[in-house]
Write a sequence for this structure.
């Protein structure tokens, strides 16, 4: 069997109006029919007006109408999400787990999107064909397993998960989870949409509740109106600068105010999308006219009508927005009229520099100011509006006799956007500017970018409109400095080829030697002629998939059936070694790199060979070089860990702040687990990663006293002294036996509740399901 691709077609062929099918209409009707009553119940138990976030959370309680008020930042609550979305790189592991759950069909509407495995090299058509042949085994697996279990399948070329979800599935007031940290994008259409690991997705698809600690609430009041060079992206770039990469941890961010209403729906999506970069559980906006316009434009007037009927429930209560300090845990106010375009980076998305300050910051930090490449697109910024506004700048290249100084590329977010922008002439405009149009996929954003010359590892600067800019992420070159900006600013900087070019004040010299100024970008929020596509790339699942076979070849290097992890032996872990003490930032990209490693996302043993190879060893400052205590020699992290495993020596990984920041990929938890690491001990965790570790039966621990990080020495032996009495809200203790024989005991905290301790004991949550101990 082969997977057919969504073939790019020319707009002059007869158009098929493919946007008329509304997914999940019955489910949405059911959600809305109970919404008002559940909001009322929530108002009664909390005894106060409600934020939108609370309305959505309380209307999605597993147990039905709210009976008690949940304590923010404290209570673990069971929720019933309305739907699940998965992308190809994470769906493999999620569905390999789902296969083990013994269910016939998914319990809630679910979809798989093939977007991460397509490498950007020469251009969309060729790249898609190449990806299809390289990844055929994986695409076939995903296609057939989706077919079997009732999961909607979006073929390679259909687009990036979050754009496709926004166009087809997101609805105001809904709750969804997705196996990708940028699932939060759907907040732009008024959802509470949360990124999770595959094991969490599996639970919900298997008909079980989904547990989340009731989040704290950050309110962001937007006043004024965007103008000139500013765009929605600049709002979140500014917020990232204020809150930093961990300022949103444990929180849902709710935007409101007249400024919020003035933003387009896809602009709101951009803001919510990058909420992942501040560690927020998710972000959301109240239902408004921009969302209604978007629903109608994407062929869902029925959903707009349904939402209009309960409009007052799909936004926060008036009293809340009038006195936000009373109802949110933290309030931030941003005046859109005064906002400046920002550039965030390099290496971290929260290093925010307004464009007017870039000259001095670049000089101070010795950042190369020549921009080599500008890239627009990704799930963050590939809406019609984004492309239209960027195209308005590309048009000026020709009109003003300019010659772009940097390379420039576009990755459209979906086939629907691509088809529509081609029809409306934008692709031609970009082509005239010399741009490359890549396939509708993640591409360079996830390191699937065959960038010519990257292997030389030269220090260089690129600017993109994506969301993440961790070291090595885009092209595998640790010396590429990536700056995140709006698509408009990215385009302007690619034209100028200069990071310090401020389009508001500066001029460019054109081919005739004249000084010219770029006019501020303009563009329609939505296509006046409507969206269209010949083949959006959707494959519906079989009504009855019981006869569909899912094959995983035993000698496959891409896919491997999962073997259960072993359960806890009930003993204290003793004689443990420190595999690595990671220094500084240790994101999921450092723990389980993407790029070329994406091909092994369905094969745990093979992908385990990249475990922690990007992390910096505190003791020697090197990457992928740790001391093997069995031999005294330094070697690669995965090799050393495999040696410990073979010798039956338990190990732990030590880390710094916000460990596991970034992606939802549970590989970052499963790989160390598979290789025999027993505990991860850090100063603090990113939310999704902490849950992933718990789910996989790992110990996720934090130093009670952060300074104890310094006490861990390279040759230490570590003994747990009270793991046998592991209990909720009770710190554990570790005895450090130093090389000189001295000993000291440190306290470590954990956030396991009683159920999660059972996961640990069973060797992972899936083992409980396998044993039929969870229904
Ligand atoms: C990312 O942006 O890092 C990814 C790739 O989309 C990840 C998912 C993954 O690791 O597969 C994410 O954001 O969760
Ligand atoms: Fe894809 Fe990049 Fe979006 Fe992740 S952030 S889903 S890699 S486009």
């Amino acid at each position: 069997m082969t997977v057919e691709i969504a073939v790019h077609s020319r707009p002059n062929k007869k158009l098929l109006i493919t946007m008329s099918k509304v997914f999940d209409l019955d489910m949405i009707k059911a959600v809305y029919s109970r919404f008002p009553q559940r909001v009322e119940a929530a108002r009664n138990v909390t005894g106060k007006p409600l934020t939108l976030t609370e309305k959505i959370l309380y209307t999605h309680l597993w147990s039905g109408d709210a009976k008690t008020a949940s304590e923010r930042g404290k209570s673990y609550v069971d929720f019933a999400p309305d739907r699940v979305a998965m992308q190809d790189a994470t769906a493999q592991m999620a569905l390999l787990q789902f296969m083990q759950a013994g269910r016939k069909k998914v319990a809630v509407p679910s979809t798989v999107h093939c977007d991460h495995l397509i490498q950007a090299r020469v251009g969309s058509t060729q790249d898609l064909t190449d990806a299809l042949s390289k990844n055929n085994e994986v695409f076939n697996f995903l296609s057939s397993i989706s077919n079997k279990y009732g999961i909607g399948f979006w073929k390679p070329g259909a687009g990036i998960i979050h754009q496709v979800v926004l166009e087809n599935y997101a609805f105001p007031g809904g709750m969804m989870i997705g196996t990708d940290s940028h699932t939060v994008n759907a907040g732009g259409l008024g959802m509470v949409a949360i990124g999770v690991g595959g094991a969490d997705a599996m639970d919900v698809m298997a008909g079980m509740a989904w547990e989340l600690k009731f989040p704290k609430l950050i309110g962001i009041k937007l006043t004024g109106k965007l103008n000139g060079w500013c765009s929605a992206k600049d709002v979140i770039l500014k917020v990232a600068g204020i809150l930093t990469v961990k300022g949103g941890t444990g929180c849902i961010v709710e935007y409101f105010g007249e400024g919020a209403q003035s933003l387009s729906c896809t602009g709101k999506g951009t803001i919510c999308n990058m909420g992942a970069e501040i560690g927020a559980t998710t972000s959301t906006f109240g239902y408004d006219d921009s969302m209604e316009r978007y629903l109608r434009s994407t062929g869902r007037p029925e959903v707009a009508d349904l939402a209009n009927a309960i409009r007052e429930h799909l936004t926060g209560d008036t009293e809340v927005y009038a006195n936000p300090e009373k109802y949110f845990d933290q309030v931030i106010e941003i005046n859109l009229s005064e906002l400046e375009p920002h550039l965030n980076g390099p290496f971290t998305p929260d290093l925010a520099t307004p464009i007017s300050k870039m000259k001095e910051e670049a000089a101070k930090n010795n950042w190369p100011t020549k921009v080599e490449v500008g890239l627009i697109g990704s799930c963050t910024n590939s809406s019609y509006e984004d492309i239209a506004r960027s195209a308005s700048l590309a048009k000026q290249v020709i009109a003003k006799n300019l010659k772009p100084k940097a390379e420039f590329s576009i990755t459209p977010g979906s086939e629907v956007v691509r088809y529509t922008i081609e029809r409306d002439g934008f692709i031609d405009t970009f082509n005239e500017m010399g741009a490359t149009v890549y396939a509708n996929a993640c591409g360079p954003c996830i390191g699937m970018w065959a960038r010519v010359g990257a292997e030389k590892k030269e220090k260089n600067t690129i600017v993109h409109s994506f969301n993440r800019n961790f070291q090595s992420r885009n092209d595998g070159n640790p010396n590429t400095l990536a700056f995140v900006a709006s698509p408009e600013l990215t385009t302007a900087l690619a034209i100028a080829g200069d990071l310090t070019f401020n389009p508001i004040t500066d001029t460019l010299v054109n081919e005739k030697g004249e000084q010219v100024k770029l006019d501020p970008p303009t563009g329609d929020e939505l296509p006046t002629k409507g969206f269209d596509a010949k083949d959006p790339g959707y494959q519906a699942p079989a009504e009855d998939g019981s006869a569909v076979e899912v094959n995983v070849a035993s000698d496959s290097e891409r896919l491997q059936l999962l073997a259960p992890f072993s359960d806890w032996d009930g003993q204290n872990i003793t004689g443990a070694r420190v595999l690595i003490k990671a220094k500084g930032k240790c994101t999921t990209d450092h723990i389980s790199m993407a790029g070329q490693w994406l091909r092994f996302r369905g094969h745990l043993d093979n992908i385990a060979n990249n475990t922690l190879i990007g992390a910096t060893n505190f003791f020697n400052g090197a990457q992928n070089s740790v001391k093997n205590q069995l031999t005294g020699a330094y070697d690669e992290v995965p090799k050393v860990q495999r040696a410990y495993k073979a010798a039956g020596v338990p190990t732990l990984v030590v880390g710094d702040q916000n460990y596991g920041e970034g992606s939802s990929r549970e590989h970052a938890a499963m790989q160390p687990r598979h290789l025999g690491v027993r505990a991860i001990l850090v100063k603090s965790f990113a939310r999704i990663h902490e849950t992933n570790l718990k789910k996989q039966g790992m110990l996720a621990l934090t130093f009670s006293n952060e300074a104890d990080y310094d006490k861990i020495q390279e040759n230490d032996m570590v003994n747990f002294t009270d793991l046998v009495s592991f209990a909720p809200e009770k710190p554990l203790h570790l005895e450090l036996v130093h090389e000189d024989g001295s000993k000291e005991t440190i306290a470590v905290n954990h956030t396991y509740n009683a159920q999660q301790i059972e996961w640990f004991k069973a060797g992972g949550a899936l083992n409980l399901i396998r044993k039929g101990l969870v229904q």
